[in-house]
Amino acid sequence: MTIELITIGSELLSGHTLNTNAHFIGGELARVGLVLSRQVSIPDDHETIIATVREALARADWVIVSGGLGPTNDDITKKALARVFDRPLVFHDEILTELKERFARAGRAATPLLDTQALQPRGAEFIPNPVGTAVGIILTQGPKTLVAVPGVPREMQPMIIDHIVPRIAAQTNVTTVSLTWSTTGWPESRLFETLEELIKETPAVTVAFLPSERGVKLRFSATGPDARTTLENWVQTVRPRIMEALYAEDDVALEVVVGKLLRERHLTIAVAESCTGGLIAKRLTDVPRASAYVLAALVTYSNQAKIDLLGVDPQIIERHGAVSEPVARAMAEGAIARTGADCAISVTGIAGPGGGTLDKPVGLVWIGVSQKTGGTTARQFQFMGDREMIRERAAQAALNMLRVRLLTP
Q1: Based on the domain organization, do 239 and 335 belong to the same domain?
Q2: What's the whole-model pTM score?
Q3: Are 212 and 117 members of one domain?
Q4: How does pLDDT run across 99-120, given as a tens digit for each residue?
Q5: Bridge partners of 348?
Q6: Per-residue DSSP letters for 78-134?
Q7: Which end of the chain, N or C, is less surrounded by CB atoms within 10 Å?
Q8: Are residues 129 and 115 in the same domain?
Q9: pLDDT tens-digit map of 259-296
């Protein structure tokens, strides 16, 4: 089974838009053991679309096309596909009726642009789009199948998850089971070195390392009639080797794990941030129902703000500097004293690109974690990267310190 992906949009080639659709579609296929054999991005050009689709259909069993299905002048994918398959565009009354009914329910007036969305290649099968106006299109030609989905991610993603991936998977005889684990604190190289021999000894399991500033995702996949048993045996062996870095046996953000721990323990939290500028608070409150445990957040960027808002002793700052263990501890303890939260995270550091010295270089960060009933701990980190990377890594490390603290008896 060969599958190719064509993402259409001049904005993808100019760099104005990140091609997240290719990442998403490739990932969803990988979850069921399918891998794209080719992926290409092309501009909104009629002849280029026709030539690229024809080439892909000559090679692949399935071709997925994303983009260009909207109602505006630059949305020309339907016209190009009609030429490729030699099928005229015909008017589909049922599509227009459904769109008008949906607009009426939302209290919106139908526009003439809706008529263009009802023009579709003759003989096509359609995938419903409950979010937007562009239906997905399925066209077959002998053993070949082409799927066209909208380029808007929130419209495309349900089509891929609910309709396309299950349909492609049903045509294969391959049984694949996959798991994604989430780690932080260990670089990709350390994880690989830890698992290298085991990977060599277990060829039935494939391992993908997916690094980012927040950590490394590990995707384990096994194929065959005994895939589930193979994977279960694998994880039993792997788990104790990477337990220090493993924070979830799932593909989940660390703030979700921390939020669950806080909720289960009926604890509230306050955050005192300096170099991360509110990033930790944002991540915590990105989680639905975070109001159950996030009490307050203070971005005390200046020394005076640390003194005025958190009660940090100015003599501590004078003696040790703002980026120091005593200040990190005082910030965390001050956050609890000023807000009444059960626990607190504090971060103070040098994110760069300037401001570093020989004694305190760019990337130096002190993180504190404090609890009303458990005292305060602080830890020094030296992060690599640019300003954004250092801030991301500091926020991740702070959340992980709290996670470990909450799990410690």
Answers
A1: no
A2: 0.76
A3: no
A4: 888 888 878 887 877 888 888 9
A5: 366
A6: HHHHHHHTT--EEE-HHHHHHHHHHHHHTT----THHHHHTEEETT-EEE--SSSS-
A7: C
A8: yes
A9: 999 999 999 999 999 999 999 999 999 999 999 999 99
